[in-house]
Amino acid sequence: MAKSNSFSCTSCGATHSRWSGRCDACGEWNTIVEEAPLSTGPKGKSLGGKRGSFLTLTDLSTEETPPPRTLSGIGELDRVLGGGLVPSSAVLVGGDPGIGKSTLLLQAAARFAAAGLKTFYISGEEASAQVRMRAQRLGLGEAPVKLAAATSLRDILTTLEAERPDLVIIDSIQTVWSDTVEAAPGSVSQVRAAAHELTSFAKRSNTSVILVGHVTKDGQIAGPRVVEHMVDCVLYFEGERGHQFRILRSVKNRFGPADEIGVFEMTGAGLAEVSNPSALFLSGRGTPSPGSVVFSGIEGTRPLLVEMQALVAPTPHSQPRRAVVGWDGARLAMILAVLEARCGIPFAGLDVYLNVAGGLKISEPAADLAVAAALLSAREDTALPADTVVFGEISLSGALRPVGQTENRLKEAQKLGFTAAITPSGGKPGGDSGLKLTHMGDLTAFVGDIFGAG
């Protein structure tokens, strides 16, 4: 088979099947050159020799105007989104069944519609009548939100192409199916195809798309992880059914800070935003008791105070229990090992229970010192002062490492009435916070000074 060559004009880019001295498109002489194929390989499997369009390249110093944003009026939601909803953005919201995803998004849809956005709410899990009943219960019956119940991706895209809304909410992505994919709705192939088509529609039509996703038993969004890479923002709805608090956490955001949280309280009229979550998480804290320590943490850009609770008791079993709620179990095992190896305080033969009050999940290493203080307080049956906050990272050598945003942590504690703080040495002094600071260099000094042992 004869080799297929491609020729193009360097002046105007026109393509020719053979070489000639003059370009028929622009009339320039000696500008036609032979082009190498883009890629080689079997026919239908490679790009072949056909050329594409030239890309517009810019410098790194090119200034881009920040994207416009629309505020919903729900401060905690706007905070997690990075300052409001960005046009053409795709947002994925995941959470346990019944945690409040549909309730929050219906409230947000009503707020965005009232702000002037043409808003569609497409439900694949509930009938339109059920969504209207929820809206009436929440007092949103008069909101200018267009509602539909559909699961066919082709029907949804046809409607969106014709109506061109500013915001569309798909509840949920696991119920949407494409007739070009031979798989059951909710399968990996269907979820990937539906998410790709809806995200592509958002980018080319200047429409914001919010997708609701189910979660697995491990708490991860069901379906392929590639869905999280397709969208611009991934939000997780957290909370325990026994608590009225709900945490909306941003784990990915191309238009704002990641790890930002918004705090909501479940009420009879829907989800109400909590402007001062530290006071809410500490509201049930009574008289200081052994095993109770207040930790000053940072979630995203927000300082947050939360109570760490520990219980240490003799075990009736040959293997002591280690139960953790709201923190990393492996991190707890490390703290126990450091206390035994560096401070000579064993926990063998003792059951250890650790809980983060309020249903919040803490992941930052700055909670190490607060956890160690709670464990020692419970073991020694000694309560720390009620007006003291604790934070710091513990290394395997037993040294205490300083943590970031010390000033913000101390200011939040001072605002809530705390008068003292125990922090690692070497960090920012934070002397203008108004708190009495106690700096500790290592865990051994902390045990000796606070609990009189070590």
Describe the overall structure.
- The protein folds into three domains: about 1-35; about 75-275, Rossmann fold (3-Layer(aba) Sandwich), CATH 3.40.50; about 280-450, Ribosomal Protein S5, domain 2 (2-Layer Sandwich), CATH 3.30.230.
- The strands form four sheets. Strands 6-5-7-8-4-9-10-11-12 form a nine-stranded mixed β-sheet.
- By secondary structure, the chain is of the alpha/beta class.
- β13 (about 290-300) and β14 form a beta hairpin.
- Helix content is about 25%, strand content about 25%.
Beginning-to-end CA distance, first to last residue:
85 Å
Number of helices: 11
The proportion of strand residues reads 15-25%
CATH superfamily placement of the largest domain: P-loop containing nucleotide triphosphate hydrolases
| Overall tally of domains | 3
Gyration radius over CA: 29 Å
Query: Largest sheet, if any?
Result: 9 strands, mixed
| Name of the level-1 CATH class of the largest domain | Alpha Beta
Low-pLDDT runs: none
Shape: globular
Helix/sheet category: alpha/beta
Range of helix content: 25-40%
Quote the CATH topology of the largest domain.
Answer: Rossmann fold
Number of strands: 21
Q: What order do the strands of the largest sheet run in, or round the barrel if closed? A: 6-5-7-8-4-9-10-11-12
Name given to the CATH architecture of the largest domain: 3-Layer(aba) Sandwich
Mean pLDDT: 88
Oligomer: single chain
